[in-house]
Design brief:
- The protein has about 130 residues and is mainly beta.
- The protein has one domain: Immunoglobulin-like.
- The protein has no helices and 9 strands.
- It has strands at about 5, 10-20, 30-40, 45-55, 60-65, 75, 80-90, 95-105, 110-120.
- The strands form 2 sheets. Strands 4, 5, 6, 8 and 9 form a 5-stranded antiparallel beta sheet that branches. Strands 1-2-3-7 form a 4-stranded antiparallel beta sheet, with no helix packed on it.
- A hairpin with a 5-residue loop joins strand 8 and strand 9 (about 110-120).
- The chain is elongated, with a radius of gyration of 16 Å.
Length: about 130
């Protein structure tokens, strides 16, 4: 499980291959990922934005940026954890993702970034 700790925030990623949409014109492969965000610091923090970099074997590179995660901007007290599930479709059966979250320390409004570790998107049949 890819894990990173940045500025006292621990990010852990779990990935699951969902299916191949061979019938679609783009022949996309769907992956689900579960992200666990743990506040290991002393201050309450709020997740404001996400910035993803998505690459596939076909050299396609995409960036996705926006507010919050799955429609939320979670606030985490010290020691709290937030978990969510999302997904990504890519044209090849191998790819990778990584990115950052923009966080705000609630005490004084200080903004800081947290690294989302690189994780592989690999269809199970490619592992044999």
């Amino acid at each position: 499980m890819p894990t990173a700790i940045t500025n006292d925030v621990k990010i852990t990623v779990e990935v699951a291959y969902q299916n191949s949409t061979v019938s679609s014109p783009n022949h996309e492969h769907m992956f689900a990922y579960r992200i666990t965000i743990q506040n290991k610091g002393e201050y309450t923090i709020k997740l404001l934005r996400r910035h993803w970099f998505i690459n596939d074997l076909n050299v396609a590179k995409n960036e996705v940026e926006g507010e919050g995660i799955v429609g939320l901007q979670p606030v985490l007290e010290p020691g709290e954890t937030h978990q969510y599930v999302s997904g990504c479709a890519i044209r090849s059966d191998i790819g990778l993702m990584h990115g950052t979250y923009l966080m705000e320390r609630q005490l004084d409004g200080e903004l800081f970034k947290v690294a989302i570790p690189k994780f592989n998107l690999i269809a199970p049949f490619r592992l044999n």
